[in-house]
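re: ur question from yesterday

yeah so i grabbed the chain u mentioned. its 203 aa long if i counted rite. heres the sequnce exactly as i have it in my notes:
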Amino acid sequence: LPADIARATSMRVLNISNNPFTRLPNAILHLGSLEEFYAKYAFLQHSSTFHNISQPTIVHAYSNVAAEECLRLADLVGMTRLRCLDLRNNQITALPPGCFARWTNMERLWLSHNQLSALQADGIGCLAATLQELHLGHNRLDCMPAEMAKLTRLRALTVEGNLIVELPAQLGILTQLERLDVGSQNGRLRFAPTTPYLLSMCN
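ran it thru and got these structure tokens back, copy pasting raw so excuse formatting
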């Protein structure tokens, strides 16, 4: 990207998808009006990638094929205005500590097709007031924290393609759910949803 992009101080949407960028210029720090940032298949790998972005409300960084130490997920924690975050297919093994407590405006969160083995059991409830979609399919999760029952505004929850043995009964109180994708959990799921509501939603 040219350095004089810093002059575009009124820019609200920046899309660098499908380009071979590995880092973003410091000039992006001057885009104070930036609301949406798209970097699908951009292969961002430099440590300053997200540190250089201001406070967007939408970030799509799908399929950058880089480990979390390269993407510097810790820099995303400070983006407290985020409403939509797409981190699918990035080889992510863990989320940065404290991220849920800072993302209190989050409405849609895509973490599918990564290598997550656990969620922060004591933090995801912080998203209860806003989160409507949570996509966790095709990771390495073997359980779902009971605290997810606090996400009473959820309309879509996808966890197919994991290693989950049992779904927490507390999910039965998520009466706003319109879509629940569980799948067979690679043959490990022994206990399906027991409440009539979850049974009717389960795919």
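noticed a couple things. Residues 66-70 have pLDDT under 50 and may be disordered. also The helical segments are 68-71, 74-77, 99-102, 196-201.
anyway ttyl
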